[in-house]
Structures are given as C-alpha cells and as structure tokens.
Write a structure and sequence with these properties.
Strand order of the largest sheet: 1-2-3-4-5-7-6
CATH topology: Aminopeptidase
Helix content: 25-40%
Radius of gyration: 16 Å
Number of domains: 1
Order of helices and strands: EHHHEEEHEHEEH
Shape: globular
CATH architecture: 3-Layer(aba) Sandwich
Strand content: 25-35%
CATH class: Alpha Beta
Bound molecules: coenzyme A
Structural class: alpha+beta
C-alpha cells in the first residue's frame, strides 16, 4: 500500500459529488423518485407523500449522527443538479460491513455514467473513510445495468434469493453481491 496520503476527496468522482441530503431536494425526489417505474426497482410499490419523504430525509440525518447509515445526495459535479441517492446502510461495527444502494432518479440522467461514478465514490467512502471490510448489496435480476456496473467495479455475485420478490405480478430472483476490502484495494490501489 502507498505510504502517501491521498488528498483526493472520496466524495467527489469524475462526474458526481456526494453531499448530505437537504429538504430542498424534495421537489426533485417527488418528481423523479416517486414514479412507479423507479419505485419497483427499489421494491417499493406504494406512492409516498411529500411529508413522508421529508421525514425520511430528516431520518437520514439522524442515522448519520448515530453512524448507523450514511445516505448521500448524488449531484452532477458540473451543474450541481440533484441526480439521486447513494447510501451505505446498516453499518455493522463488529463485522465492519454495510449494505449499499444507489439510484439515479430521472431516466434522462441514466446511462450517462453517473451511477458508476457514484458507486465508486461510495466504495471509497466505505473502505477509506468508514474503515469497513465488506459491502453487500441486493439487486433484482431484471436490473441489468445495475448488475453490470456492480460487476465492473469488483462486486462478486455470491448468492440468490430465488423468486424472493413479487414485482409487477411475478416473482423475481433477488441477487446478492458483495465486495471485500482487499478486492477493492486491488482495483483501486491509490
Ligand atoms: C441502476 C442505475 C443505478 C445505474 O446508474 P446509471 O447512471 O444509469 O449507470 P451508468 O450510466 O453509470 O452505467 C450503466 C452501465 O450499464 C450498461 N447497461 C445498460 N443496459 C444494460 C443491459 N440491459 N445489460 C447490461 N448492461 C447494461 C451500460 O452499457 C453501462 O455500462 P458501461 O459504462 O460499461 O457501458 C440507474 O440506472 C438507476 O438508478 N436505475 C433505476 C433504479 C434502480 O434500479 N436502482 C437500483 C439498482 S440496484
């Protein structure tokens, strides 16, 4: 491992910046997250009210203070446009693990490299800031772009909860993927 300290911020990628969620992000969340298409990918079918999302943002702040979960707004580094949310949740201090999630809300912003860049930032935060050892995620079998970027960034497919989730009228497989600290360091040696 190099002995020099990297001054590169893990919160800043080549395309995105990760910052705290703010109540001012609510308009964008209600417009682009609160759609059926987006919610089914996250396993949440029922529309949410603005008050509910406001409460959720406040809860993310409380969880951060308690070091239980870290939820970040993903914004476009150039324009500061709010793009979605990336999170490291259920931090387990004994096993040094957490669960990761990412969503780029507006379909117009998908497929432009923001998701990949945000996941790379989340991994750098997990391993270089929070000193975690293992990051896990689950992804529905039909979310092909998600599966692609996780594999590209070093996640391994370690299991499947067969037909575990009932989505849009049928049961789908729920894939489990994870990445260990040494695998991350091999891929991102800096
Ligand atoms: C999944 C998601 C986070 C990916 O973010 P994104 O910004 O759209 O992704 P990127 O543009 O960084 O990368 C997409 C990659 O998927 C690839 N891809 C797209 N469709 C694909 C398909 N059907 N099969 C395989 N790969 C596919 C692209 O080619 C690209 O890879 P490349 O850069 O190597 O060419 C985002 O699309 C999203 O939030 N979707 C809806 C919500 C969701 O499903 N979230 C949960 C994910 S577990």
């Amino acid at each position: 491992m190099p002995t020099e300290i990297s001054k590169e911020s893990p919160f800043m990628g080549s395309k995105v910046l990760l910052r705290s969620l703010e109540l001012s992000d609510l308009d964008s969340i209600m417009e682009h997250w609160n759609t059926y298409e987006m919610r089914i990918g996250m396993g949440r079918y029922i529309p949410k009210s603005r008050a509910d999302r406001e409460e959720w943002i406040k809860k993310t702040h409380e969880e951060m203070k308690k070091q239980e979960s870290y939820s970040f707004a993903v914004v476009n580094k150039e324009t500061e446009e709010f793009l979605g949310v990336g999170a490291l949740k259920r931090v387990d201090k004994v096993n040094r693990s957490a669960s990761m999630s990412i969503a780029i809300y507006n379909p117009e912003n998908q497929g432009k490299g923001f998701g990949t860049d945000a996941v790379e930032c989340l991994l750098k935060i997990a391993f270089n800031v929070l000193n975690l050892h293992r990051i896990q995620l689950h992804v529905y079998e039909f979310l092909k772009s998600g599966i692609h970027i996780y594999k590209k960034l070093g996640f391994k497919h370690v299991g499947v909860r067969r037909k575990a989730s009932f989505i849009a009228g049928r049961y789908v497989d729920d894939l489990i993927m994870d990445i260990l600290e040494d695998e991350f360091r091999e891929k991102f040696p800096n």
